[in-house]
Amino acid sequence: MYAQLVTTEGGTPREGMSDQERAFQERIDRNEKIEPKEWMPEGYRKTLIRQIGQHAHSEIVGQLPEGNWIGRAPTLERKAILLAKVQDEAGHGLYLYSAAETLGVSRDELLEALHSGKMKYSSIFNYPTLTWADMGAVGWLVDGAAIMNQVPLQRTSYGPYARAMIRICKEESFHQRQGYDIMMKMCAGTPEQKAMAQDALNRFWYPSLMMFGPSDKDSVHSEQSMAWKIKMNTNDELRQRFVDQTVPQAEYLGLTVPDPDLRWNEDKGGYDFSEPDWSEFYAVIAGNGPCNAERLGARVKAWEDGAWFRDGLMAHADKARARRVAAE
Ligand code: 3HC
After folding, report:
1. How far apart are CA 6 and CA 70, in angstroms?
2. Is residue 5 predicted with pLDDT exceeding 70?
3. CB neighbour burial string for 84-107, b if at least 16 within 10 angstroms, e if fewer
4. Confidence bin at 15 (pLDDT 50/70/90)
5. How far apart are CA 124 and CA 241, in angstroms?
6. Average pLDDT over the chain, rounded to an integer
7. Region Disordered: which residues (predicted)?
8. Which of ligand 1's atoms lies nearest the C-alpha of 122?
């Protein structure tokens, strides 16, 4: 089933388009929003299901590394903030699953594809969170990278996706600020605390750069997705913006970005920086990162443990429906 959902149409936009496809592309070019019941090319629908579904899974799996620290947050205030953030991520997953459902795929199908490993979630969540400073680095860098990618998606061509993004981005901004706030506290603390903050930056820097996807020359979907305005920028454009935004923030903290080749390039008006190790990226998205088995195992267990509740809910809904029908 999923194989049919994910295959995207290749080819150069406009070449060999039918009249209907050309009219659709013209609507996209005029920045009109496409709404659920309107005609759309099958490849557009499948690409959206793949991207929105992957994004929804990322929000849900993304609760795990931070959920790991709720019970160990250093103060009641930090615990309350982290709890709220992790709950927000659950909400983001729900908006996005709902947006995907408007394209004719059910939530059960999407979850089945996640649990069976057919569908991806963001590579970043396959790295462990080892210390409290990692909560700072995740908020600052991971949510920072997520915002960089998602703010332009508020203008994406599919209406339900664009609208979901507006609220998600507001909440992600708070997440990024709370992470940076943790980093500021750690960096103004004892030498040991500052060393923890530096260690967290060292471990999360390159995985954060990987969140934007492979370099443009290796990106399979960018060209068509950008023609359809499912993506608004290329992977490399957003990665560059992220580096340019984040380096001064690291300097303000007194931390060192773990890249000896990082340099301001006056001519391009941005930093030159080292690429991540792409062999590591491909290993992680193929299921062989440090925490893939643990993360997927936790999601499958949650799904199986919740079966009794879903069954009860459905049985109740069926009974209520039968009573309504009998009364009519
Ligand atoms: N992790 C896992 N897989 C990735 C990836 C990543 N960081 N980057 C790329 N890939 C996969 C793609 O899914 C594709 O595989 P597929 O064909 O099997 O689906 C392959 O690598 C080739 O990459 P492309 O560049 O061709 O793929 P896309 O055009 O889809 O671009 C993307 C990748 C930039 C991540 C794009 O899908 C996107 O913008 N998605 C929406 C945003 C999103 O999913 N964000 C998740 C971040 S985490 C988050 O938001 C949680 C928050 O709380 C922090």
Report:
1. 35
2. no
3. ebbebbeebbebbbebbbbbebee
4. low
5. 18
6. 94
7. 1-20
8. 1
pLDDT at position 322: 86
And the tokens for 285? 């998205």
What span, in angstroms and rounded, lies between the C-alpha atoms of 299 and 295?
6
Q: Give the pLDDT of residue 328.
A: 84
Taken in order of first residue, the domains within the chain and their CATH numbers are: 14-326 (1.20.1260.10)
Q: In the structure, what pLDDT confidence band is assigned to residue 14 with cuts at 50, 70 and 90? A: low
Q: Which residue has the tokens 């301001």?
A: 264
**CA 154 – CA 241 distance, rounded (Å):** 17
- Predicted confidence at residue 2, as pLDDT, reads 38
How big, in percent rounded to 5, are the helix, strand and coil portions of the chain?
70, 0, 30
Q: Is the pLDDT of residue 182 over 90?
A: yes
Rounded CA-CA distance 310/258 in Å is 47
Contact at 8 Å (CB) between 161 and 153? yes
Residue 122: exposure state from Cβ atoms within 10 A (0-12, 13-18, ≥19)? buried
- Tell me: the pLDDT tens digits for 200-247? 999 999 999 999 999 999 999 999 999 999 999 999 999 999 999 999
Pocket around ligand 1 at a 6 A CB cut-off: 50-51, 54-55, 58-59, 62, 89, 120, 122-123, 142-143, 146, 149, 210-214, 219-222, 225, 231, 235, 285
CB 118 within 8 A of CB 129: no
Q: Which two tokens stand for residue 323?
A: 């009573």
- Average pLDDT of the segment spanning 303-315: 94
Compute the distance from residue 212 Cα to the ligand 1 centre, in Å: 7
